[in-house]
Amino acid sequence: MNTVTVRIRPEAEKFTAEEEAALRRAGSIIQSGGLVAFPTETVYGLGGDALNRESARKIYAAKGRPSDNPLIVHICRLEDLEKIACRIPEEAFRIAEAFWPGPLTMILHKTALVPPETTGGLDTVAVRFPSDRIAARLIRCSGGFVAAPSANRSGRPSPTCARYVLQDMDGRIDMMIDGGQVGIGLESTILDLTVSPPQILRPGYVTEEMLKKVLQEVDTDVTILGGGDGQAPRAPGMKYRHYAPAGDLTVVEGSPGTVLAYINGQTAAAKQAGERTGILCTVENLGSYRADVVKCVGSRWDDESIARHLFTVLREFDDEGVTKIYAEAFDTAGLGQAIMNRLLKAAGHHIVKV
Ligand code: TXA
Ligand code: MG
Question: Is the pTM of this model over 0.70?
Fold first, then answer.
């Protein structure tokens, strides 16, 4: 299959006639059962018709993803929510009011309109209403319900730009909409509203603190940062090894000075042993590390910058053929919870405390 790439300027206020035509073409590809990758405010998605069971099968095949791992249905109008979800609790409308359109996904009971292939056989459905204007227009042109996992091959870091989508998906999908670099860089927060109190299954840009301003009570799945003693995470996708670079990744936690000394020591030893070494760090320590490849994700005091660069840096280690990687651990307050959740998963929960 030949993957056609179209470029849409992310910053412009209005689509040009050409861009509008490209989005309509993308919409008709999805409506006729094809797959289109597109930008959202979180990461790039791999879109197909959420109401077509064949499209769901094609998404699983293109990603190499186990078919028990359900897809998120993306909508572009609040009134469409009740077509795919039922028995919606009052809290869901409050959450929608506060955070939609935006980087938040709700788990709700599904209606018969959504085929079981889309939800991995579950009787619940994940619903997201993205704020990205390219995503919104594409969903509209596709009939209103687009199933879209992150546009990476299963297990790889989620793509934050078109180049990384094509690295994984070129030749496997019909069209790629290149809308530049995404803004947030980590996937949406997933909140399960079929349980009481509602529970965070995947942390994201919308943090526990933000949700608690709208709901009295919010729980968090204990497995998010590796707790729960081997208990399975409640979002099926969270149980798989994910986001992993090809090199062996270790997260190092401790006071800044000890972490620095430990990482430099381990890296020197790994280099001697013939490894190509990489270090993932914050700008504060950038000049003090020695390795073949030292990558900075931003400032320790700017978690939005760390979120935005994390997946890109993990992919860059692969581009540079790094075989052994050490990463500084991050504070888990606020957005840090999502950052550490992704980093720990990328490391297969291999963390050293020094
Ligand atoms: O930001 C995002 O959410 C991106 C963009 C493209 O919208 N999408 C995304 O999709 O991250 P994906 O498929 O990579 O991750 C979806 C996660 C998986 O962990 C899946 O198991 C979980 O959502 N999920 C989907 N439906 C579910 C359900 N009914 N119950 C529990 N977890 C569900
Ligand atoms: Mg994913």
Answer: yes
